[in-house]
């Protein structure tokens, strides 16, 4: 299945490349999506990712949310500060 | 004394008298700097009930021990005074280069009392201070004032904090601006300067502030630099500034939307959210801007050559500004944010309160409480960029309806006798751009901090916004963490350090710096005590003004009363009473009277007169 992904704020700094459309196996969850698209670079602090927030088709979602073909996922992480 | 210039300057504008006093080591040890020393001195100098815009009001520019040293992030000074907005204690800090310059010129703090009969500015050059005529500068904007002073004094390195026309006209939204765009923005400090006819403070110095252990400071700097490299957050910060996350914040529920009644994911949506903040604005970036000795550098200079409002020289709006003129007004036209930011910097206006005031007026307009006629023909519908820019200009000029709105939403609601149900304020000051419904601890901070309505006053709220805290809506047992996080922030602020040093990845970086800079032992326990002492000092100032806990108010929407029906914050309602109770109990303040227990004050030390004021009949 194909899903689309939009990353906001700090989240975009964790993507391996600027992907908009991602092919995933059926039954994949947000956690699987993250596994597929985020950096694995051990030199960077990955702990911040635990605070990421998600929307699927405009509704709040979590890491275990199961995705479906055509879903639009928003992956966002605040920049601490302001 | 390492880390300090060792002197304070007192300026009496009424009589034109300047006095220099040594900074007592005891004062520095107990109250550190910034608003710690500021609150201690103002408590002594000001009588209770003083008019913030009258001659008895004292205004201070206070640095901290890390300000102007080689310690990273040591760029800050704090403006302290009684607020003409809230009627209580006020402090607001600012970065740039002005604070470090005060110390290089030989002073840790400058306190100004009285009122001048005509416009003046204060000139400080390497330990020599004088009051000078500023008639020729009156009416000029903050950047022009800076430039003119540099030219006339033939000193290109002169650092200036100045009010613009907004402060001169004593707008309660006004603030001074230093270095052309850095602002101790909140609480009406511009009006206090305007009332004193103090147009500017201009400083130039060549001194150096010694630190006790320079090697250790370098070591900490190196550790921080290495950490920053590994931290994508720091990377993003340096590249996009604080406004880089504006889109994310509008969707997540961090930025309040539509005067705190909206839902980002519904009312703005992902497509438009992408237009918010630096992501869309950095095409105008000329170069990066960093405050004094800052390894992050969250600022940027812009040049806008196209669009409705070309701007030869302006700055990247920071997150609060991008939120206040963006999502809060349902505005996604970023050139409007740029224009309003530019107006605010030049006229000397607090962007948070100006945006908040416009949001209030918009909701009044939507509901027919304010008519188009009353708004001088402006069609103030949500997201109407032209209207937002026009109203900001009117507020800056105090023209037409702007003459009333220039004093903020609470003032306007009272003056016009309507619309108070749409106010989003804490003790009368507009709320900042982080939503307590996402970080519930913010409700306590906004409402009960002695400087209400601030996002840089510690507590557990901001960590809850930015981190993963699954239990954050459990309101029991928050006291200990809330007080600890508040005390820690007191110390960071008063040390003269920028709050974004949180990116450094070293939780006790401030204690390490303070020990290395001053040579004093500075454990986390010392830090906690110092923080509490400072918190109590600010609180004591308010108590002496007659303010009780019941006088500290927070508009209900921000606490989820009623809760939002949709979006990521749907259903969230904050038990503000419980949060307050937890905090008051831990900090040993009486819930009804606000009085700290005499034992706690005794334990903290340096507050004997406060005990006497509170407990002797
Ligand atoms: S992080 Fe930004 S505001 Fe803080 S000192 Fe650095 S440049 Fe200034």
Give structural notes.
The complex is a heterodimer of chains A (82) and B (617). Chain A is mainly β and 82 residues long. Chain A has one domain: Beta-grasp domain (Ubiquitin-like (UB roll)). Chain A contains 1 helix and 5 strands, in the order ββαβββ. Chain A has one helix at residues 30-37, and strands at 2-9, 21-23, 53-56, 59-61, 72-77. In chain A, a hairpin with a 2-residue loop joins strand 3 and strand 4. The longest helix of chain A is centred in the middle third of the chain and has 8 residues, at 30-37. Chain A is globular and about 35 Å long. Chain B is globular, with a radius of gyration of 22 Å. The model of chain B has no long low-confidence stretch (mean pLDDT 96). In chain B, strand 15 and strand 16 (429-430) form a beta hairpin. In chain B, helix 1 packs across helix 2. In chain B, the strands form 4 sheets. A 6-stranded mixed beta sheet of chain B has the order 2-1-6-3-4-5, sandwiched between helices. Chain B starts with 6 loop residues before the first strand and ends with a helix. Chain B is an alpha+beta fold. Among the domains of chain B are: 7-204, 4-Layer Sandwich (Aldehyde Ferredoxin Oxidoreductase,  A, domain 1), CATH 3.60.9.10; 239-389, Orthogonal Bundle (Aldehyde Ferredoxin Oxidoreductase Protein, subunit A, domain 2). The chains are: A mainly beta (82), B alpha+beta (617). Chain A binds chain B through residues 6, 8-11, 13-14, 43-45, 48, 50-51, 53, 55, 58, 60, 72, 74, 76-82, and chain B through 230-233, 235-237, 240, 242-249, 251-252, 254, 265-266, 269-270, 273-274, 298, 318-320, 323, 433-434, 455, 462, 465-468, 499-500, 502-503, 505, 567-568. The structure holds iron/sulfur cluster (SF4).
